[in-house]
Design brief:
9 helices; single chain; 275 residues; alpha/beta; 39% helix
């Protein structure tokens, strides 16, 4: 990861993805299924965590990782499509949650179900399956952040809440966002991507799911290294939009954003292309 960036007051207004573009984005990798038998090490009860991560949460080549509240998923997908229009690939984090839920459902039916009782599960066993699947998912998300050049956090009323109106104390209710933003402090800081002139950039994404919360925890909001008001960000992404935008052009346009948010010039001196 080269930079983590918060978009202050993100709303999604002004993004104009078409119905066809949204449908195409949501359909990518929608056919992935959790095949329990494929993950069994001994054919009985030991599941291979590496095989699960490689199949359900494959390491896609994304330029931008979009961290957001689940309630903002539609807007995050619109933003990912806006990045696509300037030649970049964006990864929407919530688009992998459905695969985790599918896996949990199948694991629990095989290993946690109470015999002779429909839709009844062992509390202790289900705690174990849930914690393990969530650890695998969390690990996959961290690796995606590490592999992406830019992490963008969508600061909205859904993702950031005010705990004390007088002091203005802010908090997160999503443990996923908290984990992602906290990880940015520990992630490797890598150079910007360099495109070889003959390189073909491959795009992949994941299908979404629904998340239902009956209660919430409060997590202190981690501070990112840079931020930008949404209006300024929207102007930047519109200026780079083109039906024929290439990946190289997208990478160069990212440098315009980096300059705008104050990244030191010496960190941007290396060329984006090589031969």
């Amino acid at each position: 990861m080269f930079l983590d960036l918060k978009i202050d007051g993100f709303s999604g207004a002004g993004l104009s993805a078409t119905t066809a573009e949204i449908a195409a984005f949501e359909s990518r990798n929608a056919s992935l299924t959790a095949d329990i038998e494929k993950y069994l090490v001994d054919g009985e009860k030991n599941l291979n965590a590496t095989a699960i991560e490689d199949h359900l949460f494959p390491k896609v080549q994304a330029d931008v990782f979009i961290s957001h509240a689940h309630a903002d998923q539609a807007e995050a997908i619109n933003l990912a499509i806006a990045f696509q229009r300037i030649g970049l690939t964006a990864f929407v984090d919530s688009c992998v949650w459905g695969h985790a839920d599918d896996l949990l459902n199948k694991v629990d039916k095989k290993f946690s179900a109470n015999e002779g009782k429909e839709n009844s599960y062992s509390y202790e066993l289900r705690n174990r399956t849930t914690s393990n699947v969530h650890m695998i998912l969390n690990s996959a998300l961290h690796e995606m952040i590490d592999r992406s050049e830019l992490l963008i956090f969508l600061d909205t009323d859904q993702s950031v809440k005010v705990k004390d109106l007088m002091k203005g104390d802010e908090y997160l209710s999503s443990p996923w966002i908290f984990s992602e933003l906290t990880f940015t402090k520990r992630a490797r800081r890598t150079p910007r991507k360099t495109a070889k002139l003959a390189l073909e950039h491959v795009y992949k994404a994941f299908a979404g799911t629904e998340e239902h919360r009956q209660f919430e925890f409060q997590y202190e909001l981690p501070q990112l290294s840079s931020s930008i008001p949404y209006v300024e960000f929207l102007n930047w992404i519109r200026n780079g939009s083109s039906p024929t935008a290439s990946w190289i052009e997208g990478l160069k346009h990212l440098d315009v954003l980096y300059e705008q948010v104050g990244v030191p010039v010496e960190m941007l001196k290396d060329p984006r292309t090589s031969v």
